[in-house]
Design brief:
Blueprint lengths: L10 H13 L2 H8 L3 H15 L4 E4 L2 E4 L1 H22 L12 E5 L2 H18 L4 E5 L3 H9 L5 E4 L8 E15 L18 E5 L3 H9 L6 E5 L5 H7 L2 E6 H8 L4 E4 L7 E8 L7 H14 L12
Helix pairs in contact: 1-2, 1-3, 1-4, 2-3, 5-10
Length: 308
């Protein structure tokens, strides 16, 4: 049996292989490549014949690679990255003329904080550029960065590994209560936190962990998926919410709220911008990252108007 030659294979089939390997799903690979599912299935069939291996087998709702596919994945990915880099370096990104769409992951609270100044800067420097914001599950973020569905991800993302990243802001969790709350004027201690009742934000797992470590789960009176609903509830009730200090400052500035700052477990965290090394040398993606770093690194985002 003779070995294959590079001339035997279509480069698009290697991109297709890489997308299926990364997403572990034919349908998600089709979405990432802008192809139909039958087109991806047909391409896989061609590749299987050429390589004389099934490459991917059904597993649950997706697919898993065969040993041969796992062996090929690294070299194919490196080849695609090298080619993308070479092609990207061959053109310049011109913000004033570009009509590119940039896609980013942000939580609801990150979107309310970061998007207004970013959109304002884009309007001045790249008026035809379009920005799309998504909130993905944490396990979806790295694959989306790697396969090009996202250009950047911003936020406190401790579960995201093997990406490039730049730290923007050091932050910490505090407890927000309404002005006039019975505990608002006292020096708060961790022990006194047990006298409060809480809103818990489901999508921000560290606030849940802090409440658990403090054994305050039985003091939770409301669970909500997002932070932005919480301050309005806090303002009109005696409920408290754990939230980032930089965000809380946006509410306390206008009055009506008090920040309580006892020493909490898991209190300190950092907000970063993440990207894939696959886009390290893409001029447009690099321009966006540099703009984000210029706008937000070391600058608390409490000066952004937020309505509670």
């Amino acid at each position: 049996m003779h070995g294959m030659h590079i001339n035997d294979i279509d480069l698009n089939l290697l991109r297709l292989f890489d997308a299926v390997y990364r997403t572990q799903s034919v349908s998600r690979a089709a979405d990432a490549l802008g192809l139909t599912q039958p087109a991806v299935s047909h391409g896989l069939t061609r590749l299987r014949r050429l390589l004389r291996d099934p490459l991917f087998v059904r597993a649950g709702s997706g697919v898993k690679p065969t040993p041969k596919a796992s062996q090929l994945a690294g070299p194919i990915q490196e080849g695609i990255i090298s080619l993308q880099t070479a092609l990207s370096d061959s053109f310049r990104f011109e913000p004033a003329k570009s009509r590119r769409t940039f896609r980013m992951h942000l939580s609801d609270i990150g979107e309310s904080s970061f998007v207004p100044p970013l959109v304002s800067a884009l309007h001045e420097r790249a008026p035809r550029v379009r920005l799309e914001s998504f909130e993905l599950e944490h396990h979806e973020i790295k694959p989306a960065l790697d396969d090009g569905r996202l250009d950047v991800a911003m936020g406190f993302l401790p579960l995201i590994h093997d990406t490039e990243k730049e730290r923007l802001i050091d932050d910490r969790y505090i407890v927000l209560v309404r002005a006039g709350h019975p505990l608002a004027s006292r020096r708060i201690t961790v022990k006194k936190l047990a006298q409060l009742e809480y809103i818990m934000v489901r999508t921000h797992s560290d606030t849940q962990r802090i409440l658990t470590l403090l054994r305050l789960e039985d003091r939770v009176r409301m669970v909500t998926p997002h932070f932005l609903a919480a301050p309005g509830i806090v303002r009109d009730t005696d409920l408290a919410v754990l939230m980032p200090r930089n965000i809380a400052l946006g509410f306390t500035r206008n009055g009506g709220y008090v920040m309580l700052e006892p020493r909490l477990p898991l209190q300190d965290f950092e907000v970063s911008v993440h990207w894939s090394r696959r886009t390290e040398h893409d001029p447009g993606a690099r321009w966006l990252r540099e703009l984000i770093i210029e706008l937000f690194r070391g600058k608390p985002h409490a000066n952004v108007p937020i309505q509670g």
